[in-house]
Design a protein that fits this description.
heterodimer; A: 136 residues; mainly beta; Immunoglobulin-like; 4-stranded antiparallel β-sheet; 3-stranded antiparallel β-sheet; 1 helix; 42% strand; B: 130 residues; 12% helix; globular
């Protein structure tokens, strides 16, 4: 087994997979809460993920300090199985600063119908995790 | 958890990260259904993302095979997650963006308890298991 693993690493290195590091903002949890006025609030915990290369990740995740950090949330009906036609969406941005780790809040623009099968898709960067959760 | 799962995860992750030149191939969305025998079947939709995170990857498949690993976990925490089962499926689509991959869990998924399904690597999707 150990020989197989070593052989695979060598094969990957030969393919050019030992190159530059890659890190990007990622999401590790999403908590959804229905507010009294019917809107839905999302608490999104953002970290830095090492997609390729050496851990640990940098505090700033290689993200330019002057580039905003944005979380996108989109509400999809049950029948939208390809997640291509959201009912509505919301984006929250804030200054990235020098540390990417934080909790960001996204609140739906209007009241969200209580509808069986309604799902929320949340992401912070197209290269990392998309959470898909039931809308409360 | 099967001792093969971490190995399969590593293998699929590396293939996803290295298999397509400057673009990343992963999963952009997924849906899951519980089968009559309590296994769970997931339909994952592939996507292609440029390495710099910009829009519009160009992942013409050119006969390239892409594999997607699914793991059923008791929660979502990279440091303390325990996988209860997994599944993997490979496809060779004519076009990567929007291609679907159907994965069935190797084992039945308990009805009691909250399990999540993690699919793909870069990008990855996390959904609640039915």
């Amino acid at each position: 087994m150990r020989r197989t693993v070593r052989g695979m690493w060598l094969a990957l290195a030969a393919m050019g997979c030992g190159g530059e590091d890659l890190q990007a903002p990622d999401i590790t949890s999403v908590q959804a809460t229905r507010l009294e006025d019917g809107r839905v609030s999302l608490d999104v915990y953002v970290i830095c993920a090492v997609l390729k290369g050496q851990r640990p990740a940098d505090d700033d995740c290689g993200w330019p300090e002057d580039q905003p950090l944005c979380v996108d949330a989109a509400w999809h009906p049950a029948q939208d199985t390809t997640f291509s036609a959201p009912l509505f969406s919301q984006r929250t941005c804030e200054p990235a600063g020098t540390r990417i780790y934080r909790t960001m809040k996204v609140v739906s623009p209007d009241a969200v119908p209580v509808e069986r099968g309604l799902r929320i898709r949340v992401q912070v960067d197209p290269r990392t995790t998309r959470f898909i959760i039931a809308s409360p | 958890m099967s001792p093969r799962i971490p190995w399969m995860l590593t293998c699929c992750g590396l293939l996803a990260a290295c298999g397509s030149g400057s673009d990343l191939v992963g999963v952009r969305a997924a849906t899951a259904v519980r089968d009559a025998d309590d296994h769970v079947t997931v339909t994952a939709i592939l996507t292609c993302v440029p390495r710099d995170g910009s829009l519009g990857g160009d992942c013409d498949a050119d006969g390239e095979e892409h594999c997607v690993m699914a793991t059923w976990d008791n929660g979502y925490s990279p440091s303390s997650t325990k996988s209860i089962t997994s599944g993997v499926q490979c496809v060779t689509p004519p076009r990567v963006e929007g291609a679907t991959v159907v994965i069935r869990s190797l084992d039945p998924v308990p009805r009691q308890g909250a399990f999540t399904i993690q699919l793909g690597f870069t990008p990855r999707v996390v959904i609640d298991s039915p």
